[in-house]
């Protein structure tokens, strides 16, 4: 167990921690299970966050050992992260998404200067909202997640498994759902179509495949502003960008895009050609897109092959 993370062993212990915290101090609870693959995959990210945000209290609760606490918080999927202030829940994250976990901790942590070490009077840590990747690196972030800008109409994935569809991890105003994931069906290829409510400016993409790295995407092509696209279209048309993802990239790190080519995006299409180790199927645990909302997309329907370069 990381030194800055406390494992809760009883309801009494948890209640004591909550009652002792200042009302404005953030408590992050990681509800996990020994058998949960995504829980193990995101554990290093939580440890990195606990080392960075030392003015935030981090605890872990094993749902099998502390069933009463899991029931109190109505935990149904693992991992689930609860964000508590003043004894009240202020936010929640279901699923193993490093970018979203990083963003929520930074959002609710508050400035480190608000919490002083009574012994030395020094600040306990930094409350800056830099991005922490699964590999431990950090960089400043000046863009926000665009998941809330996705519209359900037109959201689709070709060659998705019926039991593990795109809707398990991406949709309007919600992201990954615990142990759910997207997986291809008969071969490694996937073609994901993501429409937006408004035109957006895309700056970066994040793909997390930490549970099964060998199945993580490798070579991808990005297309923009098609009303629809199939595999034949993707082979025939020119992409806005081609990317070869490394094993580090698919740990939830932000991969910067050629920003000038993604200035007014109303739909994004992601062709995944293969995976890291030529596995039979490709698996993705979470996807996030970063940028900003641009001008309105109220321009009527786009022609099927009206591709913007």
TrEMBL record:
Residue intervals of the PITH domain: 135-309
Ranges where the Thioredoxin domain occurs: 1-110
PROSITE patterns, per the entry: PITH, THIOREDOXIN_1, THIOREDOXIN_2
UniProt organism field: Dioszegia hungarica
Protein name as it appears in the record: Thioredoxin
Keywords, comma-separated and alphabetical: Disulfide bond
Annotated stretches, region: Disordered: 287-309
Domain of life: Eukaryota
């Amino acid at each position: 167990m990381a030194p800055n993370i406390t494992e809760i062993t009883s309801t009494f212990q948890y209640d004591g921690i909550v009652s002792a915290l200042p009302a404005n101090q953030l408590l992050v609870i990681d509800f996990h299970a020994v058998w949960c693959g995504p829980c193990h995959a995101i554990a290093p990210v939580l440890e990195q966050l606990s080392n960075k945000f030392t003015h935030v209290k981090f605890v872990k609760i094993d749902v099998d050992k502390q069933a009463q606490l899991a029931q109190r918080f109505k935990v149904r999927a693992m991992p689930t992260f609860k964000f508590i202030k003043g004894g009240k829940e202020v936010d929640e994250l279901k699923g193993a998404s490093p970018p979203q976990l990083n963003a929520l901790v930074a959002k609710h942590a508050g400035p480190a200067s608000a919490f002083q070490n009574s012994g030395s009077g020094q600040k306990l840590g930094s409350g800056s909202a830099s991005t922490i990747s699964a590999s431990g690196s950090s960089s400043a972030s000046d863009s926000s997640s665009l998941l809330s800008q996705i519209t359900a109409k037109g959201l689709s994935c070709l060659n998705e498994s019926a039991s593990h569809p795109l809707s398990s991890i991406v949709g309007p105003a919600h992201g990954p759902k615990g142990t759910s994931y997207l997986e291809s069906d008969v071969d490694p290829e996937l073609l994901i179509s993501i429409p937006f409510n408004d035109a957006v400016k895309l700056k970066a993409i994040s793909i997390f495949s930490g549970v099964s790295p060998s199945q993580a995407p490798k070579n991808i092509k990005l297309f923009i502003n098609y009303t629809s696209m199939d595999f034949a279209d993707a082979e025939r048309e020119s992409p806005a960008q081609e990317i070869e993802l490394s094993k580090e990239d698919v740990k939830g790190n932000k991969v910067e895009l050629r920003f000038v080519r993604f200035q007014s995006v109303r739909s994004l299409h992601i062709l995944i050609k293969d995976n890291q180790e030529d596995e039979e199927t490709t698996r993705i645990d979470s996807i996030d897109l970063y940028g900003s909302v641009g001008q309105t997309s109220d321009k009527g329907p786009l022609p099927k092959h009206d591709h913007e370069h």
